[in-house]
């Protein structure tokens, strides 16, 4: 009897390990137990099929099941459960919300709850589902608050603002039952031909790092967040690792022709800052390759750097369909299962958004082509997110409260403030601020529409520049309007085909606009992009990158015709990329960069144009004169910029540039010590005074140059900034600390060191107009 009993006990153990139903008080259900203990227990109970389900995602596969799938239908479609669901606010997969309207907050929460109820009560182990949404500048969903696009937020040079915006995004996202936001983007953007430049915080590693840290803190909360996620917070997803922002020829997903030194000096630091200073819990690999190795199979990048040098312990997720692209685009895998095997071996934990590649892992593990340990590692990372989000205890959203938590009066007010602080005054010959009197013509393709930019939400109300100006002046001035030109026939970001407006029809529109403008005293001309002319080119049939930086279509002709009237003209740019508006910058009476400034952008622009708000934004990118200068960025090496025949190397506007309606004086930096050791620090004090007649904001910018070094260093690098508000006549001292982190370089042996020598410390209002002091660093 002993032997048969032993066999029965052994069989029972095997059955349990293979997935026998757990006891109600199984350790993984114990909320008081450490997360690692709960993961160990649950992992031991899961079948291979259930494990693989946890590292795959569902998006388009939801559509055939309809808006209210039955439990039976879900079980038939997903017998091993669902690991993650992409974008539950849409109505069944990718597509334009203009064609198929998405779900509002309440409907999304109800849909999430339906799926969670099935997962928790009808799957064998009751593992809840993880949900993610896009959240670049507000959750990209119906009814949500739409904030300024990332490049606009970067123009605020205000990390506190970025933190506040992302806190609202987190609250509105979590209210819908969603736990993960695919944001922020901390790619260094060095090529404005690239349509995704609008999604970035600009070209500088330090600025991008500070904004990235603030965004993650807004989404997840301040601190490491190693235990439980707050009930009004979401896990941030840091993207895209790395080199994405300087693609070959400016084309999305193209190779990043970058050496290791350039990666370490410029592209990796923002990621390292976020990993080191926050509790970031998800990192997304990038589409591109570096040195012949696509990021999704780059063991050096995802293993040696991310998990090794930086000590990252969270999840690594794929970009959408990127594992499939290892076969289809990069050709480093012959089959989908080979692509999946290489990706999971390199350290990718989840296959977004459909899991088609990772679905092959069951067969691959059983055939010995993929190690079980690799799958277990990936599952562990994804389960960690679920346990820390509290999904095993609180899987359901409060659908009744979801609607009231989104697009609140406070959120709309913040959207207006964010837009105000993001606007950059590029030139002003005295025309601005406007007076609310006489007759003002508001003209242009971007005057009467609120352009939100890529990965946009659908807020209940949007305010165009025309709307904002009319609301601002009331009956004190007469407002005239004409479209002037049309840019594209359609402006739907999702639409594959982009058709430029008919030039002949535009010439007629220009003639009409000129007749309208003749009746006006002053002209406000809104030009720029549509969401189609600057966007992510995610497919050969859905392009978004451009070889030219000129305004699209007949917009320059519209300006020329209006300018010929001899009336004061202020040009407002609403766009997703820097534009080469050389003639406009020279001839317009004022030029304002607005970027995509969100649902309240029209009110904010009117606030600035009429002087109720003094502009204080600064450029987070260099604006070139033409595409022939590219790549063009401020922190170049000393050998760059020797010159061109017949043209200048100077940008149209430098990094950090931005004017005000008042004037400021920034003094030379003062050092607390003229000399420090290599491990020491110095306090840099900079005086700033408002020397004008209006209250306003100035951004004090601190730069550093290593005068002589063992390897070449940039001519200047941003090492600190502070946005301050000063009354007329007010003076303030801003202190910065420069320590080893600011002084170090990667030497010839690719080691971080601080080399003795002199450093030039510079301060000013932009990257050009700087005053300096000398710091000596000794051994």
Compute the CA-based radius of gyration. Answer: 27 Å
**Structural class based on helices, strands and sheet pairing:** alpha/beta
Distance between the termini: 79 Å
- Beta-strand portion reads 15-25%
The number of helical runs is 23
Low-confidence stretches: 1-20
Count of strand segments: 26
Largest sheet: 7 strands, parallel
Principal-axes shape call: globular
Mean pLDDT: 95
Helix content: 25-40%
The strands making up the biggest β-sheet line up spatially as 1-2-3-4-5-6-9
Could you explain the architecture of this structure?
- The chain has 779 residues and is of the alpha/beta class.
- Helices cover 31% and strands 17% of the residues.
- The chain contains 23 helices and 26 strands.
- The strands form six sheets. The protein has a seven-stranded parallel sheet with strand order 1-2-3-4-5-6-9. Strands 10-15-14-13-11-12 form a six-stranded mixed sheet, with helices on both faces. Strands 18-26-25-20-21 form a five-stranded mixed sheet.
- A hairpin with a 6-residue loop joins β25 (757-764) and β26 (771-778).
- α7 packs parallel to α8 (205-220).
- The relative contact order is 0.10.
- Mean pLDDT is 95; it is low at 1-20.
Write the layout of secondary structure elements.
Layout: H1 2-18, H2 35-45, H3 48-54, E1 57-58, H4 71-77, E2 84-86, H5 105-122, E3 130-134, H6 150-155, H7 159-174, E4 180-182, H8 205-220, E5 235-241, H9 260-267, H10 269-277, E6 282-285, E7 289-290, E8 293-294, H11 299-309, E9 315-317, H12 322-328, H13 336-346, H14 361-366, H15 372-388, H16 399-402, H17 409-422, E10 424-428, E11 439-443, H18 465-473, E12 478-482, H19 503-518, E13 522-528, H20 555-563, E14 569-574, H21 582-587, E15 590-593, H22 601-609, E16 664-666, E17 670-671, E18 675-677, E19 682-690, E20 696-706, E21 717-726, E22 731-738, H23 740-743, E23 745-746, E24 752-753, E25 757-764, E26 771-778
Parallel strand pairs: 1-2, 2-3, 3-4, 4-5, 5-6, 6-9, 11-12, 11-13, 13-14, 14-15, 18-26
Antiparallel strand pairs: 7-8, 10-15, 16-19, 17-19, 19-22, 20-21, 20-25, 23-24, 25-26
Helix pairs in contact: 2-15, 7-8, 7-17, 8-10, 12-13, 17-22, 18-22, 19-20
């Amino acid at each position: 009897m002993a032997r048969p009993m032993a066999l029965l006990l052994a069989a029972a153990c095997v059955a349990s390990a293979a997935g026998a139903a757990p006891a109600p008080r199984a350790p993984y259900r114990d909320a008081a137990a450490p997360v690692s203990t709960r993961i160990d227990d649950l992992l031991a109970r899961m079948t291979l099929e259930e494990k693989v389900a946890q590292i795959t995602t569902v998006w388009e596969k939801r559509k055939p099941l309809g808006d209210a799938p039955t439990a039976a239908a879900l079980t038939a479609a997903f017998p091993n459960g669902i690991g993650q669901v992409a974008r539950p606010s849409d109505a069944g997969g990718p597509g334009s919300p203009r064609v198929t309207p998405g779900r509002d907050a309440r409907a999304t929460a109800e849909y999430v709850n339906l799926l969670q109820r099935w997962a928790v009560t009808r799957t064998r182990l009751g593992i809840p589902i993880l949900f993610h949404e896009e959240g670049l500048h507000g959750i990209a969903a119906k009814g949500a608050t739409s904030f300024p696009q990332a490049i606009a937020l970067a123009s605020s040079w205000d990390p506190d603002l970025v933190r506040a915006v992302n806190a609202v995004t987190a609250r509105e996202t979590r209210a819908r039952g969603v736990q993960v936001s695919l944001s922020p983007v901390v790619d260094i953007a060095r090529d404005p031909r690239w349509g995704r430049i609008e999604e970035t915080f600009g070209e500088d590693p330090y600025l991008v790092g500070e904004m990235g840290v603030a965004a993650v803190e807004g989404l997840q909360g301040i601190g490491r967040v190693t235990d439980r996620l707050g009930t009004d917070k979401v896990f941030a997803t840091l993207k895209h690792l790395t080199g994405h922002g300087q693609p070959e020829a400016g084309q999305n997903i193209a190779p990043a022709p970058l050496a290791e030194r350039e990666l370490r000096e410029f592209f990796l630091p923002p990621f390292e800052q976020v990993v080191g200073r926050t509790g970031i819990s998800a990192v997304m690999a990038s589409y591109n390759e570096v040195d012949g190795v696509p990021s999704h199979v780059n063991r050096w990048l995802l293993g040696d750097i991310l998990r090794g040098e930086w000590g990252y312990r969270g999840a690594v997720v794929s970009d959408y369909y990127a594992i499939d692209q290892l076969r289809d685009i990069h050709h480093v895998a012959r089959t989908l299962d080979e692509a999946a095997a290489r990706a999971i071996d390199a350290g990718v934990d989840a296959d977004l958004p459909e899991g088609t590649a990772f679905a092959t892992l069951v067969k691959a593990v059983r055939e010995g082509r993929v190690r079980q340990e690799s799958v277990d590692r990936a599952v562990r990372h994804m389960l960690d997110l679920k346990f820390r989000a509290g999904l095993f205890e609180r899987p359901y959203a409060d659908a009744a409260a979801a609607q009231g938590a989104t697009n609140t009066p406070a959120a709309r007010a913040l959207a207006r403030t964010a837009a105000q602080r993001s606007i950059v005054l590029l030139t002003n010959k005295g025309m601005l601020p406007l007076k609310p009197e006489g007759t003002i013509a508001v003209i242009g393709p971007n005057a009467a529409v609120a352009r939100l930019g890529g990965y946009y939400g659908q807020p209940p109300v949007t305010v165009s520049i025309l709307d904002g100006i009319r609301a601002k002046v009331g009956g004190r001035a007469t407002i005239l309007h004409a479209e002037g030109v049309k840019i594209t026939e359609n402006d739907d970001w999702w639409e594959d085909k982009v058709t430029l407006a008919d030039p002949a029809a535009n010439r007629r529109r220009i003639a009409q606009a000129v007749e309208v403008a003749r009746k006006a005293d002053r002209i406000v001309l809104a030009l720029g992009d549509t969401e189609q002319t600057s966007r992510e080119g995610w497919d050969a049939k859905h392009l978004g990158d451009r070889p030219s930086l000129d305004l699209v279509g007949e917009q320059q002709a519209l300006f020329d015709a209006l300018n010929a009237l001899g009336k004061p003209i202020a040009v407002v740019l609403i766009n997703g990329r820097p534009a080469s508006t050389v003639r406009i910058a020279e001839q317009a009476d004022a030029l304002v960069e607005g970027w995509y400034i969100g649902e309240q952008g029209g009110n904010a622009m009117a606030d600035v144009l009429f002087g109720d708000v003094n502009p204080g934004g600064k450029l987070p990118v260099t604006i070139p004169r033409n595409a022939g200068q590219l790549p063009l960025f401020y922190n170049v090496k000393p050998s760059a910029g020797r010159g061109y025949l017949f043209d200048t190397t100077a940008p149209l506007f430098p990094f950090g540039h931005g004017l005000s309606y008042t004037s400021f004086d920034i003094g030379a930096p003062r050092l607390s010590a003229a000399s420090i050791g290599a491990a020491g620090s110095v306090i840099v004090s900079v005086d700033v005074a408002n020397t004008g007649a209006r209250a306003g904001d100035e951004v004090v910018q601190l730069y550093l140059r290593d005068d002589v070094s063992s390897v070449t260093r940039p001519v200047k690098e941003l090492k600190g900034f502070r946005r301050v508000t000063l009354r007329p006549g007010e003076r303030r001292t801003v202190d910065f600390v420069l320590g080893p982190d600011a002084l170090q370089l990667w030497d010839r042996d690719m080691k971080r060191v601080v080399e003795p020598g002199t450093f030039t410390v510079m301060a000013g209002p932009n990257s050009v107009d700087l005053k300096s002091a000398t710091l000596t660093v000794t051994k």
